[in-house]
Amino acid sequence: MAARTSTFLLPLLHRARPLLLGRKWHHRSPWFSSQSCSRGLSGISPALSPQLAGRSYKELYELSVKEPETFWGSVARERLAWSTAFQQVSDCDLATGRVSWFLGGKLNVSVNCLDVHAAKDPDRVALIWEKDEPGTEERVTYRELLEMTCRLANTLKSLGVQKGDRVAIYMPVSPIAVATMLACARIGAVHTVVFAGFSSEALAGRIQDAQCKVVVTCNQGVRGGRLINLKSTVDTAVKSCPTVQHVLVAQRTDHSVPMGKLDMSLEEAMSRESAECAPEPMDSEDMLFMLYTSGSTGKPKGIVHTQAGYLLYASLTHQYVFDYSPGDVFGCVADIGWITGHSYVVYGPLCNGATTVLFESTPVYPDPGRYWEMVERLRINQFYGAPTAIRLLLKYEESWVKKYDRSSLKTLGSVGEPINHEAWEWFYNVVGDKRCPLVDTWWQTETGGVCIAPRPAEKGAEILPAMAMRPFFGIQPALMGEKGQTLSGNDISGALCISKPWPGMAKTIFGDHQRFVDAYFKPYPGHYFTGDGAHRSEEGYYQITGRMDDVINISGHRLGTAEVEDALDEHPDVPETAVVGISHDVKGEVAFAFVVLKENTAENQEHVIKELRHLVATKIAKYAVPDHFLVVKRLPKTRSGKIMRRILRKIAMQQTESLGDVSTLDDPSVVTEIIQAHKQYRSRLDKE
Ligand code: WT7
């Protein structure tokens, strides 16, 4: 594929060119010493070491669980370029939440994602930036991305960013955002990408918690034909962030934004820097990045991932779950603000030398054929997206799909929330022409990569709608009963745990290791608890049944109902609220808020609700704003004062015939009261 140079990057690359033209990228010790760079897989081919070669998928899985040290040791040695070999494969104890992989080893993630490929094939396309306007895509080669990353790394260094320092990235999906992530990795800084849809307060909370030194952003974002003023959001956020010393601003549009005393043009700063930057040798367990995600209580938690284990797991799953082969164009349409973007837009594909698509737009811009027109134009081989988008698209005529050539597609993937049968069938039959395996992949921010999924690489394996999920290499799922016992046998449901450590698992919550231990390792001692429930079928397949805690999933975005309640409770006229998730045919779930108002505000209800919507949008993000608000006099509580959200959820879902046990309520008459109020609300809705 011929590389076309990005106009966005042009000024940089022109300056870079004289430095690199006619110069061979040499293998520099210790990064490329023959011993340390023995990528025995010849980079990414599925050929395995003598120990692993020739074994069937089933045999490999068995080896991965019976002899995890042999299995993970071999794949880590052959897939990653190390500057110092590791001494010990793992040192983990799930009883105490201690997780360590590849001890004594040193490597650099950016070297594995860039230098090794740029050395072999510098003109291979690393990124295809599918910009908002169809047909305006830009390609970035491995050499270009390496140069960009080095200039960015040098820029960060010149601003005093050192190993271990945190850098916040508030940018839309773009090559410069990917280069910023990799630049952090190159110098050992820790990135925390904040989804560019979060409000300034949500951004500030994350910057404060992570104590970031630098924020990298864009003047504006462009999505669905609309401009989003990112820089002004950052301006507001950093006012309350004393740790921030610099704000680097990349120019996505022509619009010029006011520059304050912290601000600096990223392109200008980069143009002054060299296109080479020596990679920092990092310990396997040094922090690579943190990513904030919602829990059932409290503020979002900074999930910490480290270097070697994370990268290895992202790359192995990228290859095996999606049946990736060298030369494929991998199209994951997730935003880099979520873990899916980290593992399957950036780290997994780049570690494997793939061409990865950066999707800036929306599924319906300029029309509902966007994804499939893009598949045709970019010849995408693997398409990985979210059920919520599929549910939206299946409402339109099939011709939006059929008119585009999708013959390049080999694998379809789904992630982030349960995929219902209708969406599965449409994706498989209409998009994939019943020809492409559709992999429903279960995992979490905390797991680093896919843990449970069907495996297309397993030739001849049957793929069943929504029921075909099996554990990936090294993953040992367990279902737990109400008394905390492991449930054996098939056709059974329970709390989904994972019983053995794997290299991709998170290491801690930034600044609060105890919370990490309490949330994931205390509920079922000796196991990692996922927060999800699951069913194991007769055949031993897993089906995820949904969250067991107060976390909800709106359009694949994870949200703690407690966060929404905290935002609502800030309103001076609102003494108390309870938020639950109810199902929605496109978004999967939406938030339903039960609100208690102060006596004297009763007439003002409409106005208060308007203010509440605004509060959630400014404190968290627009997607978190509840779809429903119901004013009630009281909330159902137990005698000890605990709100019974289970009952509220049933009422909101109109399942009042199966309310379950209400005898523990302090005053059961509250329930009738709320059911009444809810009926009136629904009939008002029906009339509207
Ligand atoms: C939660 C994790 C996985 C990356 C994106 C979301 C739900 C995720 C599935 C699936 C059913 C799923 C779970 C999980 N979830 N994938 N294939 N089927 N549910 O990462 O934001 O950390 O959310 O998403 O409830 O716990 P996340």
Can you put this structure into words, describing what you see?
It is built from 20 helices and 34 strands. The chain has 688 residues and is of the alpha/beta class. The strands form 10 sheets. It has a 7-stranded mixed sheet with strand order 6-5-18-17-19-20-21, sandwiched between helices. Residues 1-47 have low confidence and may be disordered. The structure holds 5'-O-[(S)-butoxy(hydroxy)phosphoryl]adenosine. Residues 293, 338-340, 415-418, 440-445, 530-532, 544, 547, 553, 558 line the site of 5'-O-[(S)-butoxy(hydroxy)phosphoryl]adenosine (WT7).
In short:
The chain is α/β, with parallel strands linked by helices. It is built from 20 helices and 34 strands. The radius of gyration is 25 Å and the shape is globular.
Sum up the structure in keywords.
688 residues; alpha/beta; five-stranded parallel β-sheet; binds 5'-O-[(S)-butoxy(hydroxy)phosphoryl]adenosine
Strand order in space, largest sheet: 6-5-18-17-19-20-21
Portion in beta strands: 15-25%
Spans of at least 5 consecutive residues with low confidence: 1-47
The number of distinct β-strands equals 34
The description of the largest β-sheet is: 7 strands, mixed
Distinct small molecules bound, one entry per kind: 5'-O-[(S)-butoxy(hydroxy)phosphoryl]adenosine
Shape from CA axes?
A: globular
Give the terminus-to-terminus CA distance.
54 Å
Helicity, as a percent range? 25-40%
